[in-house]
Specification:
single chain; about 600 residues; alpha/beta; Rossmann fold; 2 domains; 8-stranded mixed β-sheet; about 25% helix; zymogen; serine protease
């Protein structure tokens, strides 16, 4: 193989970790992600064997948006005719050409056919080879690394290379490196206040909810405020039990907090808890951080009422450098288990968890920057969101609370490719919100002294996340609305500040100031997800399918009268004022908040 004919996955400026591989003298015990702050330890033993895995490129991914539009565009004669999981699996299975090309290359490189095993789903090739053989094959150098606890792990110091004609058939090779820097699970800004919007108020006893129930909606937003804001008077009329919240890691809820909330706002729900769907051993009764998960659950259960059941995907995260998104996706789609970008050896729940119609995610898990260690991972995850959407699932995610900075740590992108806290730099999006197959929800609030009859403003308690993706191009279904903003309202920023051709978000907005906890788009996402669950209830009662992927419909002319257009506010960060709210779609509040009755009517008018 000539050096000119290689595709490189070499280490960039952006910090990374390496795949953790516990190594004995003769075998590999397990794979999981970890941090290696102490750096290089020594070169890996060339005689140690590793299960080198090639994740093969999927077929027809270039047609994914077309397939989705066929079932999600209101103008399509096939609207609502969602695919079966089997149809999705078969359509995107790697082609025989891909399998043959990679197998042929491996054999030409001296790997005996007996050492090459094709996965049961046809999407991975696995080799049982030595470190020396892997280094020769990948033109890489494997090192052992040590973490703070002294655990030894193996990874490629400077990445790896593949022939150009093979790289198009391979998404990832691992163990090589982990694709993203380990980060804490992030939900909302630390600047957000608890229990209302009073300046400087940071805590209030949870048993004082009655005082907030009596306050105005411009001070503390209750369930009744939300119902009034969005014209939401919901009584279930179908047998639907299909709205799920997602909690990751040690973010847990406390049933006693739910009861305190329900005693004040929904007495007939006292004693009710969500149905647990444990993923990889996720346990809401384990020690953790009780508060933010409670927010999601009390909002969704409170809005949907006792006639609807809420289920909870509690996804375990054993260390901070694992991306729990992979675990959630694998639990919904078994074929994803073997190709999870952050490694699959630690995943045991493979397609064995129930699917639902609406899934709400109040987390931002990775920065949306164009980087070779991040982009392959997030693109694979986003494609999986799209494939699952084909089966009729609506994914809803919070847009973040850092304005145009990365919400988890308020970081901006510097010219050298690194992220830096609270500084000037290019704008950084949030994932999964910026994935085009996810409906991203920004945050609003009732203006001081205003009533629920008035249109809200973009919240000023924290900068609501929004902007343009660096990984995903702008989809056709939002092109006209976004171009209107770019032509008429966008601030005069240098072209390098944000990607004008990227997928724009948020798509919609909802109130981000909760009645009894902290504010954030973490509250906005479950509120909007509850409205979509109620829409599905009405459609099922009319013998129609769930709405599934809703973004093309929301941006269509058929939904033009559904939104309350939010035109006041901005989302400052990165040394700028960010973007400004404007008539029509904007990167602060999206299309605006919704009038539920109009939203329901628009969806009921579709096949």
């Amino acid at each position: 193989m000539g050096k000119a004919a290689v595709a490189s996955n070499r280490r960039p400026m952006y910090p990374m970790a390496f795949t953790r591989l516990l190594v004995s003298l003769v075998a590999v015990a397990s794979v999981q992600a970890a941090v290696f702050p102490t750096g290089l330890y020594r070169r890996a033993d060339p005689d140690v064997r590793i299960p080198l895995t090639f994740s093969l490129a999927q077929s027809n991914l270039d047609k994914l948006e077309t397939f989705l539009l066929d079932v999600a565009d209101p103008r399509s004669p096939n609207y609502g005719q969602h695919w079966s999981p089997a149809q999705v699996k078969e359509t995107f299975r790697p082609s025989a050409e891909t399998v043959d090309a990679v197998q042929g290359w491996l054999q030409d490189a001296g790997i005996h056919a007996d050492k090459i095993k094709l996965g049961s789903n046809g999407d991975i090739l696995q080799l049982d080879i030595t470190i020396a053989e892997a280094e020769n094959l990948l033109h890489a150098e494997y090192y052992l690394y040590s973490d703070e606890d002294g655990h030894l792990s193996v990874g490629c110091h400077d990445g790896y290379t593949l022939p150009v004609h093979i790289s198009q058939h391979v998404d990832f090779v691992w163990p090589t490196m982990q694709f993203s820097e380990p980060r804490s699970l992030s939900r909302r800004s630390e600047s957000a206040t608890w229990f209302g919007r009073e300046s400087g108020a940071t805590t209030t006893p949870i048993d004082n909810l009655s005082a907030f129930a009596e306050a105005g909606c411009d001070t503390s937003v209750t369930l009744d405020c939300l119902r009034a804001l969005y014209n939401f008077d919901f009584t279930p009329v179908s047998e639907l039990n299909a709205c799920y919240a997602v909690e990751f890691g040690n973010n847990i809820y406390r049933s006693e907090d739910l009861d305190l909330f329900f005693e004040t706002y929904s007495p007939d729900q006292v004693g009710h808890i969500p149905t647990l769907i444990s993923v990889e051993g996720g346990d809401p009764d384990a020690s953790g951080t009780p508060s933010e998960a409670t927010l999601d659950i009390e909002l969704m259960m409170g809005l949907l009422g006792s006639g609807q059941n809420l289920s909870l995907y509690q996804v375990a995260q054993t260390n901070l450098s694992q991306d729990p998104t992979d675990r959630l996706l694998a639990a919904l789609d078994g074929s994803y288990c073997s190709v999870a970008p952050t490694g699959s050896e630690g995943i045991t729940d493979c397609g064995n968890k129930p699917r639902t119609s609406v899934i709400s995610i109040s987390y931002h898990l990775n920065p949306d920057i164009n980087d070779p260690t991040i982009s392959p991972m997030v693109k694979r995850q986003c494609a999986e969101f799209g494939k699952l959407s084909l089966t009729g699932i609506t994914f809803v995610a919070s847009s973040g609370d850092g304005g145009v900075a990365y919400s988890g740590s308020e970081e901006c992108l510097l010219p050298n490719g690194t992220l830096a806290f609270n500084t000037n730099g290019s704008f950084v999006g949030q994932l999964p919100a910026s994935c085009p197959f996810v409906t991203a929800v920004g945050a609003t609030s009732v203006a001081a002294g205003a009533s629920t009859d008035q249109v809200e403003e973009s919240t000023t308690d924290f900068p609501s996340g929004g902007g343009f993706s660096n990984n995903f191009p702008r989809p056709a279904w939002q092109s006209s609305a976004v171009q209107n903003y770019l032509d008429n309202f966008v601030p005069d920023y240098n072209a390098s500040v944000f990607n004008r051709s990227g997928r724009a978000y948020p798509d919609v907005a909802a109130n981000g100031i909760d009645s009894g906890h902290t504010g954030g788009t973490s509250a906005s996402a479950p509120i909007f997800a509850s409205l979509i669950a109620a829409v599905n209830d009405a459609r099922l009662a009319a013998s129609k399918s769930p709405v599934g992927f809703i973004n093309p419909a929301l941006y269509s002319d058929a939904f033009a009268g559904v939104f309350n257009d939010v035109t006041i506010g901005s989302n400052p960060a990165c040394g700028t004022e960010g973007f400004v709210a404007a008539p029509g779609w904007d990167p602060v509040s999206g299309l605006g908040t919704v009038n539920f009755e109009k939203l329901k009517a628009a969806f009921l008018a579709l096949p």
